Amino acid sequence: MKYPLEKLGWRDFQRLVNQITAEILGQTCEIFADVNDGGRDGAFYGVWEKQDYEDLEGPFVVQCKFSEKGNNLVPSGVSEEIEKAVALAERDLAKSYILITNAPVTGSSAQAIRKSFLEIEGLSQFRIFGADWICEKITESKKLRALVPRLYGLGDLTEILDERVYDQGKAILETIKDDLERFVPTEAHQASVRAIRGEGFVFLLGDPGSGKTTIAQALSLAAADTWQCRVVKLTSAEDFKRHWNPSDPHQFFWADDVFGQRQYERNRSQTWNHLFPHLEAAIRRGARVIF
Questions:
Q1: pLDDT (tens digit, 9 = 90+) per residue, 262-284?
Q2: Contact at 8 Å (CB) between 113 and 76?
Q3: At 250, is the pLDDT very low, low, confident or very high (cuts 50, 70, 90)?
Q4: How far apart are CA 70 and CA 38, in angstroms?
Q5: Cα dihedral 21/27/30/33 (nearest 10)
Q6: How many other CB atoms are found less than 10 A from the CB of residue 267?
């Protein structure tokens, strides 16, 4: 499946690459600031856990090559990166160099680019991953899509979601598409993904306009994708009692303003408090809940 990665923009493409290194390549890289990065978008220190297609040793440099047009990457298009790699190798900062680009890369171009980099003294390993490889990994990895929810706005949901949840996923996406276009993954979002995957429950607390609803929307779409969940938007504790099916582990309950919309509402809070044993039972049976 093809994703128009050029629509992400350079900054969000770098965020995507950061998640790819962690979730697909299995390494956590240090990401540097947009300016004065010393020729490195990211770096890795330590022992690189080898994957099926890697045989690398450090120190490692991860470089993003973003194209707004999405044209094929040709050998002449990496001259700037080669100059940076030479300087890094001279300072013993780049023995292994990984170039990840949103541009398509043909086999002949990849071979020529690889040859140019490996001619750099001090650089002994080089890998290049292009648009086709990235799109393949996005399609394969539900976790990657959950961590970078803007990807849902780029892909064809009929190819991402199975038919059972496609209509619901499409409806969710239609309500948040504009928000996803501006969505910036935050630590709160990343922590929410980890919590909903590991514990089945997320409680978001923050000021109005701080992004709680956007995170909940993104998690709802990820739940439909990752676990084929039916998303149920709750307006009250009574809604949960009506809709929870103990025999259905594929339910995702999203409750907004659980303790009051603008201020604390005691009666509303007490009603939810009485339902906590039921919520715990639902989570133990596979349901996921976000407050």
A1: 778 888 888 888 888 888 999 99
A2: no
A3: confident
A4: 25
A5: 0
A6: 7
The CA distance from 208 to 133, in Å, is: 40
Where does 85-152 show beta strands of DSSP type E?
96-101, 125-129
Q: Between vectors from CA 145 to CA 201 and to CA 12, what angle results, nearest 5°?
A: 115
The 10s digit of each residue's pLDDT in 83-113 is 989 998 898 888 888 899 999 999 999 999 9
Lowest mean pLDDT among 47-51, 72-76, 226-230: 47-51
Q: Give the residue from 201, 180, 185, 178 showing the smallest Cα distance to 147.
A: 185
Give the global pTM: 0.61
Confidence of residue 202 (pLDDT cuts 50, 70, 90): very high
What's the CA gap between 194 and 190, in Å, rounded?
6
What CA–CA distance (Å, rounded) separates 136 from 223? 20
Whether 61 contacts 93, CB under 8 Å: yes
Measured on CA atoms in the order 210, 211, 212, 213, is the torsion positive or negative?
Answer: positive
DSSP code of 44?
E
Q: Is 201 helix (H, G, I), strand (E, B) or coil?
A: strand
Percent of the chain with pLDDT over 90: 23
Gap between the Cα atoms of 133 and 100, Å rounded? 9
Name the token pair of 52: 């099926």
Q: Where are the alpha helices (DSSP H) in 29-91?
A: 79-90
Which residues are bridge partners to 126 per DSSP?
97
Cα–Cα dist 200/192, whole Å: 10
pLDDT at 79 (0 to 100): 93
Residue 23 has which token pair?
């979730």
